[in-house]
Design goal:
The complex is a heterodimer. Chain A is of the alpha/beta class. Chain A is built from 12 helices and 9 strands. The N and C termini of chain A lie far apart (about 50 Å). The N terminus of chain A is likely disordered. Chain B is mainly alpha-helical. Chain B is built from 23 helices and no strands. Chain B is globular. Chain B starts with a helix and ends in a 9-residue tail after the last helix. The chains are: A alpha/beta, B mainly alpha.
Chain lengths: ~350, ~550
């Protein structure tokens, strides 16, 4: 007899306490924000340390309370696929077109309004209008300037399988931008060559990192000599340690390792907070949202709308030439890329 | 005569427990075994692609690396814990009261905090590197990532289990056994080997089993050290593939390995029993004079306690000071601490409430089904946290969407993981309250429910509280389930340490790590002074 009562009481207590906790949080903030409030749930494959200010700017401007789940882009894409229609997410803010494309392939992204899409060059958005690029980036090789001169570095990423690089390479295998580069290599060089390259890199005993920033930090500290990363992480590390001996090496035009890509955003089909979600996308592609990439101290991504210039000192986006692929093609190939990275042993 | 009659009356209850109590106990056990059942179903439904993960050469490597780590950590924990226990309990080691407590204290450091400390001290951008770089120009310190770091972190956070159990056994040991051996002319060392150690074996074995299970299911230390053991592989597999069924298959391999350890242990323990045939002399054995051996003995104790306790405190203190002097915000840690305390409080309450029917059934209506239920509830303790977390993510995203990503589901995961700890407290508490007291109350006109509430509950309260305290502490330290199941934006001390350590932001990890140590300290102190050890869950 007490058994049933206590179990019931336990369940009730847990349920009450948790709703009280969640409701309490939401309620306080909503009332503080006044009538303009509302909530928005974002799955962000972009790192907290980089995009947190953007969320804050948006919250301040609109009074919308943003809840963010951070993770790797591919991991969140898989989570969205697993959750299906039951996902609490309204917006997927991803680090690469591959994970956005994969979610689109699963039929989970709604269409974005034309006036938002048209702000961005065609090559940086989905032709079907399910996702749009929000900032541009180039793949580079970050190198330690104390142990290497730029002349010591090869012109192509392919050459890093040479045994002279044994124990000197670092990269983040679960990072979406790295995965996008591998997909680009598969699309231009073929699966067999890519697999051979990955195995060659593995034979060189690379150090694996959680994300791009620790990779560049490791290059700066001399833990490794080169890192396969996006161009702007250099500025994050330089902001904290201005004298860090690290620089970016841009590979030759057309090389898979010189991929020019975007971070982007899509709204989930049937998002509970669709209006807020569209406001968020609109904000990311507004002048204010785009100036962030040029003006924030540690930022150096390329703004994608007209009239907002990138940070000074960067090579113009138009001059950068990656491999000849469509960003839209990355999505359908992501799953195979993940499997290949898994089979080669970088993610187990 | 009277007593015998009462027992026969009690036997009537044994045959027929109240339906509601039995039902509640069955419901609780069904709920906590649900995750494993679902995981099996998911893996079984995965098809050939998912199972092909088993055919890969990499699987052998993963199992090999896991077994190697378990073997080395268990061996090292015994090699450290048993000599420490012997020195403290049986010799004239100087300041042995101090060492007796200090040697157990590394228990306050969860394995992933130990890993954080090792990385922040000896890692590529750690304290040692910074100290050496300036005056000595040393640019690289020896590699700590991988096996050495994982083995060291786990040994330091697990050897106290062996130590505490061995001390307890040494204190119970009848000195007459050793005296007989000595009087037959055997030297100290041989006496220890041939007489003392065999009697200690069950306790050392129990400690070693705890260490092996802890190491097998540890997720935090191996992940932060990037060592390729199975728990980390399950997590990576889960994160890095679209098809998540291979992660479920790998998780089952881990469960299988856990079962294997339990079977091996039962086999190794065999049927050997050591009994006193008579009460024996109730006296403490004379302490062995260490003589000039006291200096190496002191150095040994100092080294273990230094690395296990002093280094963590110094390193965390250093990074905390840096965080404060650099003006980095440490406020996030306070919010995380509140979340941790809140979630752990809920988990403790829920686990004890869930343990009540199972414990009550086992204590008041002992029968074969009741024993099986209790066993089943206890078996969840051997289930690695990452397995529970994975199963619940799958289940909730598919079939229980209203609770998906809510605090309720997270608390449920904690209950699944830590019900055995609550049960340990509850069962022993009820066992100590004589049913005659309740019967007396009923004889005086109380209803069964009122008799239970006014007699049994107050008398068993200390045991229930002890169970709740254990669950509270374990939940504070829990990492893998928290990582996978927490609601959006819900940061705890454990996740703060995790997030900051993965990106080598040691100054941000310092305060949460210190708070975890501080919260654990009183519990561990109670554990040490009371001299009883419960199964503790790894982070």
């Amino acid at each position: 007899m007490p058994g049933k009562a206590t179990v019931a009481a336990a369940l009730a207590a847990v349920a009450l306490a948790s709703t009280a906790a969640c409701g309490g949080d939401g309620g306080d903030e909503a009332s503080a924000e006044g009538a303009s409030g509302g909530t928005l749930t974002v799955y962000s494959g972009r790192e907290e340390e980089i995009v947190e200010p953007l969320f804050e700017m948006f919250e301040e401007e609109t009074g919308i309370d943003v809840e963010v789940r951070f993770g790797d882009s591919a991991e969140l894409a898989a989570t969205l696929a697993e959750e299906g229609g039951a996902s609490p997410a309204d917006v997927f803010f991803a680090q690469d077109p591959g994970s956005l494309g994969a979610v689109e392939e699963a039929g989970l992204l709604g269409e974005l309004p034309d006036d938002v899409l048209e702000r961005v060059d065609e090559r940086f958005r989905d032709p079907d209008g399910h996702w749009v690029g929000t900032s541009g980036r180039a793949r580079v090789v970050a190198y330690n300037t104390e142990t290497l001169a730029e002349d010591d570095l090869p012109a192509s990423i392919v050459e890093f399988t040479d045994p002279e690089w044994r124990g000197r390479i670092g990269f983040p295998p679960t990072n979406a931008s790295f995965q996008a580069f591998v997909t680009a290599m598969r699309l231009t060089e073929g699966d067999a060559a890519t697999r051979e390259w990955l195995e060659g890199i593995r034979a060189n005993e690379p150090k694996l990192y959680e994300s791009n920033t620790p990779t560049v930090e490791a290059v700066a500290s001399g833990e490794v000599d080169v890192g396969f990363v996006n161009h702007y992480y250099l500025y994050i590390v330089k902001e904290e340690q201005p004298d860090a001996p690290v620089a970016n090496h841009y590979l030759e035009s057309g090389d898979p390792g010189a991929l020019v890509s975007v971070a982007g955003v899509g709204v989930l089909a049937g998002a509970e907070n669709e209006t807020e979600a569209e406001r968020f996308v609109d904000f990311l592609l507004s002048e204010e949202g785009q100036r962030f990439y040029a003006e924030a101290a540690e930022e150096a991504e390329y703004p994608l709308i007209e009239g907002v210039e990138p940070r000074e000192g960067l090579p113009p986006l138009a001059d950068l030439e990656g491999p000849d692929i469509e960003l839209d093609d990355l999505g359908a190939e992501l799953e195979r890329t993940l499997e290949m990275l898994n089979e080669v042993g970088f993610t187990t | 005569m009277i007593d015998g009659a009462a027992t026969r009356a009690g036997a009537g209850h044994v045959r027929r427990p109240p339906l509601l109590l039995g039902g509640a106990a069955v419901a609780v056990v069904a709920l906590v075994t649900l995750p494993l059942a679902y995981l099996v179903a998911r893996a079984a439904g995965g098809g050939a692609d998912a199972w092909s993960v088993l055919a890969r050469a990499r699987l052998l490597e993963l199992v090999g690396q896991t077994v190697l780590l378990v073997a080395v950590v268990t061996g090292a924990a015994v090699a450290v814990g048993v000599p420490l226990a012997w020195l403290v309990a049986r010799t004239d080691l100087p300041a042995r009261r101090f060492w007796a407590v200090a040697a157990a204290l590394p228990l306050v450091v969860p394995s992933y905090v130990a890993a954080l400390v090792l990385l922040a001290a000896f890692g590529p951008r750690g304290l040692l590197q910074q100290v050496l770089e300036g005056p000595f120009g040393v640019e690289r310190v020896p590699e700590i990532y991988g096996f050495p770091g994982a083995a060291l972190a786990l040994t330091l956070s697990t050897y106290p289990y062996v130590y505490l159990l061995t001390v307890a056994a040494l204190r119970d040991l009848d000195p007459a056994l050793e005296e007989a051996s000595r009087s037959l002319g055997r030297p100290h060392l041989e006496t220890f080997r041939r007489v003392t150690f065999p009697v200690l074996r069950p306790s050392v074995g129990a400690g070693a089993l705890l260490v092996a299970l802890y190491t097998l299911s540890d997720f935090g230390a191996v992940s932060l050290m990037q060592y390729g053991s199975l728990t980390r592989a399950v997590y990576l597999q889960y994160r890095s593939l679209f098809d998540r069924t291979p992660a479920a298959v790998l998780a089952l391999v881990l469960v299988l390995l856990t079962c294997l350890v339990l079977v091996l242990e039962a086999f190794a323990r065999g049927r050997a029993r050591y009994h006193r045939s008579a009460p024996g002399a109730a006296r403490t054995p004379p302490r062995i004079a260490l003589g000039r051996w006291r200096w190496p003995a002191l150095a040994f104790c100092g080294a273990v306690v230094g690395v296990g306790l002093a280094v963590p405190l110094v390193v965390v203190g250093y990074w905390l000071e840096r965080a404060v002097s650099l003006g980095e915000g440490v406020e996030a840690a306070w919010g995380a601490a509140l979340n941790s305390v809140f979630a752990s409080g809920l988990a403790a309450a829920a686990a004890v409430l869930a343990a009540l029917p199972v414990g009550l059934l086992a204590a008041r209506h002992p029968s074969r089904p009741a024993r099986i239920l209790e066993r089943a509830a206890f078996s969840a303790n051997a289930l690695p946290g990452i397995v529970v977390a994975l199963a619940l993510v799958f289940f909730a995203a598919g079939y229980a969407t209203p609770v998906y990503q809510t605090l309720a589901l997270l608390v449920f995961a904690y209950v699944v993981r830590f019900l055995p700890q609550a049960l340990a407290g509850t069962s022993s508490a009820f066992a100590r309250v004589s049913p005659h007291l309740e019967e007396a109350a009923r004889g005086l006109g109380r209803t069964p429910r009122r008799a239970f509430l006014s007699v049994t509950v107050p008398l068993s309260a200390p045991g229930l509280m002890a169970g709740a305290a254990l669950v509270f502490l374990s939940t504070m330290k829990e990492l893998p389930a928290t990582l996978l199941l927490r609601p959006i934006g819900f940061e705890t001390l454990a996740t703060e340490v995790w997030t900051a350590t993965t990106v080598a932001a040691y100054s941000q990890a310092a305060l949460p790590a210190l708070l975890l140590i501080v919260f654990s300290a009183p519990f561990v102190y109670l554990l040490v002074t009371r001299g009883n050890v419960e199964v503790d869950a790894p982070g």
